[in-house]
Amino acid sequence: MPADHPPQAALPPIKIRSIEAAPLLGESPKGGWSQEIRPEDSIHAIIAVHTDAGITGYGSSFTDGRLVQAGLQVLAPLYEGENALEPERVSEKLHQNTFWMGRGGTLTHTISGIDIALWDILGKATGIPVGRLLGGTYRRRVQPYCSLLMEEPERMRDVVEEYRAKGFRAFKIGWGPFGRALDSKLDEAIVRAAREAAGAENKLFVDAGASDANWPHGLKWAMRTAEMLNDYDIGWFEEAVKPDAIDDFCHLRRVSPVPIAGGEVLTRRQAFIPWLTRGAFDIVQPDVTKVGGISEQRRIAWMAADFGVKYIGHGWNTALGLAADLQMSAAFPDADLVEYIGGSPYVDGILAEPFTLDEDGYLGIPEQPGLGVALDRDKLAKFVANPAALFV
């Protein structure tokens, strides 16, 4: 080895001392669900992993925070005293030793937040951003698409124009009345209004949200709707049929003139195998705050690449989820978009330095160690009952 590159001593283990979860409450954004989210409902939780080295890592879980708190109690004997510098091994240990309690539910969502936080710790301990730890830097900035609920046409136009004025150049509209009003003319009017407001030069995506309760349509509706969406240069058609209807997804992908996206309700890498091998998606959308964290997300992304399927993470969550998606987008060659909820205080209102768009409507990928973002204790106090527990 050349003299100017002396051997580096291995980092000593950094042990997990405790893990805390804080449900986000008070300003939960609407989801367009048939059973609508209320501001006081918990649908996201912040997770803090505290270590004996004084380093705390942060993550996020997409589920009711009370479930995350219960999940931590179940998982505690498995993670207490573990080496926080080994996120993939520790997370896999948690998965492997809880399979009999069910895979893909509360525990998997809880492990997602833990895993993100462990990667944050590894980055902070080494002084390296997570994206580089994942293998490289394909890009230093990425285009966010502003994720907005479907509205009646006039309101839809106003909302897209509002966020276009804020600098966004890509948009996704979803859920709300689309498909649920059983009126194809209304569906088209909503899309037409959004396209007119977005402008022909900007990207527009459509999310039917067929994972909603009692989705009323099947394959034939999705096929007809895909033809309509093609007339408006829609970049992808997301969750067009019920989330377990793999045969319908496969057929729709074959016949649709618009790329077909999905996968946000799937969790753990194993669940994605039949969807990729059978050709159900053009774009696969695992959610890092549900699927098992960054460790699972990276495996799904590389597996998708081997099947010629584009990876764009689902990101309807928090600023920490977005930070994880940004780091993932640095590490994967085709991850050229990230989802950004329009107007969510859990994205815009909890960081010391909020995300800002550049003049081209892009987000810079943080280059600080770990996730590269810092929570603001005072801002977070507005949404969590005991913020001090996240910062000890």
Set out the fold topology.
Blueprint: E1 16-23, E2 45-51, E3 56-61, H1 65-79, H2 87-96, H3 106-126, H4 130-133, E4 141-149, H5 153-165, E5 170-174, H6 184-198, E6 203-207, H7 219-230, E7 237-238, H8 246-255, E8 260-262, H9 269-277, E9 283-284, H10 294-306, E10 310-311, H11 319-331, E11 337-341, H12 345-348, E12 363-364, H13 377-380
Parallel strand pairs: 4-5, 4-11, 5-6, 6-7, 7-8, 8-9, 9-10
Antiparallel strand pairs: 1-2, 2-3, 4-12
Structure summary:
Keywords: Lyase. The chain has 13 helices and 12 strands. The protein has helices at residues 65-79, 87-96, 106-126, 130-133, 153-165, 184-198, 219-230, 246-255, 269-277, 294-306, 319-331, 345-348, 377-380; strands spanning 16-23, 45-51, 56-61, 141-149, 170-174, 203-207, 237-238, 260-262, 283-284, 310-311, 337-341, 363-364.
Description:
The chain is an alpha/beta fold and 392 residues long. It has two domains: 128 residues, 2-Layer Sandwich (Enolase-like, domain 1), CATH 3.30.390.10; 240 residues, Alpha-Beta Barrel (TIM Barrel), CATH 3.20.20. Helices cover 36% and strands 14% of the residues. It contains 13 helices and twelve strands. Strands 4, 5, 6, 7, 8, 9, 10, 11 and 12 form a nine-stranded mixed sheet that branches. Strand 6, helix 7 and strand 7 form a beta-alpha-beta unit. The longest helix has 21 residues. The protein is globular.
